[in-house]
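Table S5 (text form). Sequence records supplied for joint modeling of the two-component complex.
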Amino acid sequence: MNVQKVLIVEDDLWLAEHYLRILSAVGYKVLIAPHALAAIDAIDDDIPDAIILDMLLSGSTALALLNELQSYGDTGSIPIILCTNLASELSLEDLRSYGVRQIIDKTKMVPNDLILALRSEM
Amino acid sequence: MVDSRLYLACYNYLYMSATIGEHNHFIDGPLTDGIPSLVAAAHELKSPLVLIRQLSLALENTDISITDQKRMLRQISFTSEQALRLTSDLTRSIRLSDALFALEPINPQQLCEDVLRDLIPLYVAHNRDIKIVSSKRALLLVANRDLLRRIIMNFSDNALHYAESNIAVEIKIGSIDAGRTVRLGVRDYGPSLSGNVLKVLANRLTNTSTSIHSRPQSSGLGLYIASQFADSMNGKVGVTRHRDGSTFYVDLQASRQLSLL
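The corresponding structure-token record, covering 383 residues in total, follows.
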């Protein structure tokens, strides 16, 4: 069975490590990118099976990355789970065309939410 | 519709700093005079609270090794301290107009070394490095020690978030304006800014009359507070954008004490 790869795009390193700890424990191969440019590099190297994406990133917002991913056939279909403090201001319906499958509210999430979200999308 | 909603959510956040900048220019009163400032404070405190909550929930899991538990507890402490610094600065900035501040000649090198000592454990915990860069014997400046210290701590907290791990953040001490002004800056080497982001920043610099702007993704509250502190010492806060990071600086009057001797 292939190990599923998850890319975490999160500029809070300690929060990213926390996600990594949760997801590695249940068998995912996890990579961390602290900003959109690093994410694009990581995706160029190895296309992940899913992306967990923060909305407000260093250098540029997730919006730039979402647009970039949608511009290419091989990256446009990667399931994206937004994990953000701005969840209450976003609508999943509006974001579906960007490849966003779920929005997790960072202020309410529990550690298991990430696993449940990934399992339902991959 | 999709674009506009998404942009709206982001830009509400991104352009908060521009709003704050305008307030900085037009309002001399307390920070809480403006509703956007309250929104900024709420947003700014969300991130550390989210991290603390997540780590606390994770610590309920008994499978975590002792080493990881200790590391997570340390992260909770440092994150709490950073959030407390912000709330403390916020309180201080609200009370600025009610208080008198003693301005005194200060050796910037000494003050920066004190700040550095306090910051090193935080930087080490983040696997980051910070150092002082001073080109020559620094001039004394006129400032309030506590407020100046808060400004440098604030800039350094900000830099920590954006700095890459392989290049040290620099606290720079120098003088400008033929030695009449001392400039203390905090230079980080973060991710390169895209052309679009640079364009947005350039527009902000053109369209607002203040020189202080936050990161594109930050509410800019900390920087707003820093600018309030600088104002109360007759100083000025500014930012220089580089392709590979930023320098946030405060300019303060050099002490004329030596020339009077």
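Note: The CA atoms of residues 19 and 106 of chain A lie 12 Å apart.
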